Amino acid sequence: MVAEETITWFGSAASLLLIMTAVFLWFAVSRGRLRSAFYSIPPFITGIAGIAYLMLSLLALDALPFEAAESTIRYTDWFLTTPLIIYYLGRMVDVRSAVLGGALGLNAAMILTGYGAIVVDSQIQLALIAVSAICFAGLVFLLLRPFTEAIQNSPSQSQRLFRSLRDLTVFLWAIYPFAFVLSPEVLGVLQAIDYNFVVAVLDILTKAGFVSILLLRQYQLATFVTGEETTTPA
Amino acid sequence: MARVSISSSYVTKFAIATSLVVLAILAAAANLFANLSPELAQAQQEELVSGLVAMLFILVAGVSFVAASVGREAISSLNALRDSARRMERGELDVDLETHRNDEIGELTRSFAATRDALKSRISQTEQRSTELQEAATDYSIEMQRVGEGDLTRRLNEDVAVEEMAELAENFNQMMDQLEETVGEVYAFTEQVAEATSKLETQTDQSIEASEQVYSAAQDMDEQVGEGEFAFDEGELASGTEGDMSDEVDETVEAIERLSNRMDRVNEILEFISEVADETNMLALNAGIEASKVEGEGAEGFQVIAEEVKTLAEETRDATDEIETISDEIREGTNNALNSVLRQQAMLVALMDEDTTDLADSAEELRRTLTQLEVSDLPEGAEPVATSD
């Protein structure tokens, strides 16, 4: 029986993520820029995450119409949303295709090895965790070097928005491995209810926080669409 | 060196502060666990640890979100302001400082923009003033150069935008008015000096001619006395030659006296020329003083004119001194000649008197002799010839 707190956290996360999806969609439609990748991708990020947490809530309530494990839903969410975030950051800086492909590959490897660390036994679990950490380190390197160098010649406001989103991604994604190590799946320091709470908060901050920054700094987001700096909200 | 890098990086300071907060909360959690765990069962202790660790994760996640969103934006805005300030420092006043923010950073950005606009305005005004100054200085330089070349009628344009240049032009024009008047007076004096010099030259020629006459008369007298060509005929000696010699000597004396009068006149003219030279020198000094009040190329021109006038005055002075010396010598010479002539006249008169007396005595003796002879030889009844005793 899933604790009521867990249901509360899953439900709150789903609500918040879906609301953020709707808000951003309205924002994009009202500006007439829904066709732009910079305005169409963010709703997918929060929308997929919101649906995943809705499913987790239903799963916690035993109302999910199909069989699925909590970790499967969660990792499926991460496997779909994290590439969108990497791709979005790559589009912002217009990085080379090879670098973007490498970043997406490292991200996919990070998620898959992390999922593998859950489903396999403990002997290779730590190895998979180490591989996942290495992939994450490589991804961080790409974000900090090639991605950042690619935007050096862009307007200052574009650079500032990218750096905020990049730092948010790197800081928050770095907490996931520590939380996983302390989770019931590995060391068990964090109990399931607390681990779910921590992961839900991290997911909200990573995705809803990502989109909220775009909304609050929409004047900077517009520079990617118009190609020139503006001072008033589009 | 680490201390310097920390103080120079806002990110580093923020990270250190965040770490300290996390450590503080971690310490608080550990303290809480230490206080409660003895009273809790194992399962409760595990729940407590799990809760505290979760809270720590949430704290770190929250701080990370704040740092990545608000903190990064603040640092990025400050970096952008710093870069704009550096560009303005290099003179690039076209930097874009527009902002939509209404917080402290937005207010700071607008202050930078106001400063930039004020700098641009001030630079524009300064450049315009510099252009006006340069144009006025160029015009003034051309006019002063023409003044230096001798055209004292040139004046500076006082109707200029720069007040200081207008004041300079006014003072310069006043000085030029005074200088033009002074130079006119000097020129008038110079003409007078030239006229006086011409008269002096005429008087000198006349003096030379009179001296030559005196010298010629003295030579004639000397020749006549030396060769003894005086015809001591009683009649000529009594009336003719003596009278001619006396007239000739009188004429010589009169010539010498005229020469002396002319020399007096020459001295008067010399005095006049000397006064003119002194006046000219004084005018040159005044012109030099006025020139010192003017700056720039015009001062050099004034100074040159003043120096030339001064040189002319000094040369005139030297010439008058020399002429005065020569006239003194001529005067002395004529006086000596006059005295010599008078002495010679006196000597000649004395000599003539003596000779006349001897001749008279001889003539009387001859007459008596002739009378004796005539009386002895005269036939009977003849009368002796009457004499003019």
What this model shows, in words?
The complex is a heterodimer of chains A (234) and B (389). Chain A is mainly α and 234 residues long. Helices cover 81% and strands 0% of the residues of chain A. Chain A is built from eight helices and no strands. Chain A has helices spanning 4-31, 37-60, 70-93, 97-119, 122-150, 156-182, 192-216, 218-226. In chain A, α1 (4-31) packs antiparallel against α2 (37-60) and α5 (122-150) runs antiparallel to α6. In chain A, 43% of the residues are buried. Residues 228-234 of chain A have low confidence and may be disordered. Mean pLDDT of chain B is 76; it is low at 228-239 and 375-389. Helices cover 85% and strands 0% of the residues of chain B. Chain B is mainly α and 389 residues long. Chain B has helices at 2-7, 10-36, 42-89, 104-148, 163-227, 234-238, 241-293, 297-377. In chain B, α2 (10-36) runs antiparallel to α3 (42-89) and α7 runs antiparallel to α8 (297-377). The chains are: A mainly alpha (234), B mainly alpha (389).
Q: Give the helix tally of chain A.
A: 8
Rough shape of chain A?
globular
In which range does the helix fraction of chain B lie?
A: over 70%
Which outline of chain B best applies?
rod-shaped
Helix-strand topology string of chain A: HHHHHHHH
* Quaternary form: heterodimer
The most extensive interface, with participating residues per chain, is: A-B, 35 and 27 residues
Summarize the structure.
The complex is a heterodimer of chains A (234) and B (389). With 234 residues, chain A is mainly alpha-helical.
What key attributes describe this structure?
heterodimer; A: 234 residues; mainly alpha; 8 helices; 81% helix; disordered C terminus; B: 389 residues; 0% strand; rod-shaped
Fold blueprint:
The complex is a heterodimer of chains A (234) and B (389).
Chain A: H1 4-31, H2 37-60, H3 70-93, H4 97-119, H5 122-150, H6 156-182, H7 192-216, H8 218-226
Chain B: H1 2-7, H2 10-36, H3 42-89, H4 104-148, H5 163-227, H6 234-238, H7 241-293, H8 297-377
Helix pairs in contact in B: 2-3, 3-4, 4-8, 5-7, 5-8, 7-8
